[in-house]
User: Fold Phosphoribosyltransferase from Hyperthermus butylicus.
Amino acid sequence: MTGIPHPQPTRFKPVSWREVEEGCAHIAEKILATNLNVDVIVGILRGGWIPARLLSDYLGVDTMGALEVKFYRGVGETAEKPVITQPLIVNVRDKVVLVVDDVSDTGKTLTVAVNFLMHYGPRKIVTATLYVKPWSMYRPDFYHSETDAWIIFPWDKAETVVELVAKRGLSIEEVSKITGESIDFIRRIFETRNKASTTSSRAGQD
Amino acid sequence: MTGIPHPQPTRFKPVSWREVEEGCAHIAEKILATNLNVDVIVGILRGGWIPARLLSDYLGVDTMGALEVKFYRGVGETAEKPVITQPLIVNVRDKVVLVVDDVSDTGKTLTVAVNFLMHYGPRKIVTATLYVKPWSMYRPDFYHSETDAWIIFPWDKAETVVELVAKRGLSIEEVSKITGESIDFIRRIFETRNKASTTSSRAGQD
Amino acid sequence: MTGIPHPQPTRFKPVSWREVEEGCAHIAEKILATNLNVDVIVGILRGGWIPARLLSDYLGVDTMGALEVKFYRGVGETAEKPVITQPLIVNVRDKVVLVVDDVSDTGKTLTVAVNFLMHYGPRKIVTATLYVKPWSMYRPDFYHSETDAWIIFPWDKAETVVELVAKRGLSIEEVSKITGESIDFIRRIFETRNKASTTSSRAGQD
Amino acid sequence: MTGIPHPQPTRFKPVSWREVEEGCAHIAEKILATNLNVDVIVGILRGGWIPARLLSDYLGVDTMGALEVKFYRGVGETAEKPVITQPLIVNVRDKVVLVVDDVSDTGKTLTVAVNFLMHYGPRKIVTATLYVKPWSMYRPDFYHSETDAWIIFPWDKAETVVELVAKRGLSIEEVSKITGESIDFIRRIFETRNKASTTSSRAGQD
Assistant:
């Protein structure tokens, strides 16, 4: 992990698909242990979608909806704050709603999601994330485990490679070691992302 | 695969997460080879969500939306037809839209999705699926490969186990062999699904 | 107004279309006097829609959206509370939003609407109603006038006739006098509503 | 009507609120005469909203939704075409849906609205407009009457005044005569619109 220009060594936690599946199965078991009968699963865009989809399979809940939360700095404001950019359009009145995200880091996303969804008149809202950071101001009702490391989810690999290479000067080989992913696949998605951003900026010029 | 009470031996194609990732990377590469610059990715609920999320990572497209299509038999009708149960609420006017599903089987889902989204005035709609069945009446613009087997996606494992055990009388061990998944994990999600449906029917009694 | 079985004589305030137009023009002038530049008008379903549409004409704002608020009693609760039954699906981030209703009575509808819409990250939310009741716990930013009477809006005539005749035993002639509407038109919409509810209950029997 | 710089004298049809109410009552009666039991009323934004709201009162249907259709010229296209800019988010599967607009002129708006809503799997869709133009390529299922004049609806007064004064050089007095509205009210909403557009362009400069 040498070569990372960071004040102190960052610890990475690459998460395998197997850990994602076992984490979701673990959460499903915890939920069932409370005798809770989930009616609707809401996946937070974009981090929560894949665990939400797996929980839908494990819990046999086929009513799913999306809720998108993005962080923006408002006009004249200094700090970014979470904003609802796509409201849920599934009826959840008097229903038990499970809101799913991949990680609760600051905890702001889930806090705003729950406050927002309370206005729909659900019977109950519970939240689940695969991981929770120790400093999170919000504790999800259900989670798989706690970690203070930089989590690399399977759905963030390309994003992570771009960030580690472009912003931290790491090599493909170093990223391969950190993520536990093969050099070939890391190179492949790195090149795909680069080509996509080139296409995108060319298109922006028209 | 003996023991399956089916007119003719069903061939199964269990898909690993590695194949999902490589299939999505393959699709991303095909899209970029056409110099197409995708603005918005629309994931079809519930099958298309996980490949849509991976393509969002590989293509660097962070605007995603959901479109839910379900099959229903209308009043007085004999055949099921695809119905939009959650419309897209992302603005795609004059945008290039990539619609993603896991498989194009009959082809009806993608056909209705494209017809529906055309009304939003997009600049262009293209479609992608991991797999396509040879008999599909609709050919996605981009796909990973063709197969006539019963595909078992990683996000359908619990659903598949329940179906193979309950409706076809297979044992956990047989399902483990078919899916290439460990007996332990198959048993675990099978028990979770069973417990969930028990909770659910109990709740239904109140 | 004799014959109304009510503890104390109810005072009615029938509102003419002319008063609706002048009230909306008055609100538009008040808004402009503050140099506020409205980007989006949100009409609360179902009371706010007609004034919202007129304000859209007077202020030249052609971006409008709907927000539906209904009152329900939750499971195990004694009091009804306002619930969002249709969220706004127009993007209002960093926009000036004008939320419109016909009257602020308890004030609960506008309170929940504003709290809900704050999550979308607007630049500013202001509210307007034609009338406000003296006991309303919420004062709209802009309103035409205050009254403690039972307001009869032009879009509530059929509802009002049904209620006054069926629940209070008034005659068509008495309702005509109260509303200032012709006996013929009152009778016409009363018969329409009755026929509609008969059709509706017949349909419910199949 | 002298002074209008138009190839041939335009005939105007100003519609009073009384005519709006009687037109909507007429439509409600026609619908009930067919024994149709409407479940959901969809108002087309922005023209259809006020008649939709009145029909909701007359028919006693309290489930309403919005559908916005706007005309745009696509990239590289010569003619404008109707585009869905806000999809309906009310569930209408197996329901009888009444789609309402103020006028069917070219007929394109209702055609696209019906085609779009068919994808939601309704039991039946019927359409209603107050007026229909003789050349409309689409005949609504229910309408009040036919006219080839330039219709001035009560919710288009300010828009109409601005257009007749700015683009056709008419005076406030001429517009007053055409619309049958008092000079005072015409002047009032004309000044409001002008002030609003000044505020708006000032705001655009920041």
User: Anything to note?
Assistant: Residues 183-205 of chain C form the longest helix (23 residues). Chain C has two domains: 13-152, 156-198. Chain C has a mean pLDDT of 92. DSSP finds six helices and eight strands in chain C.
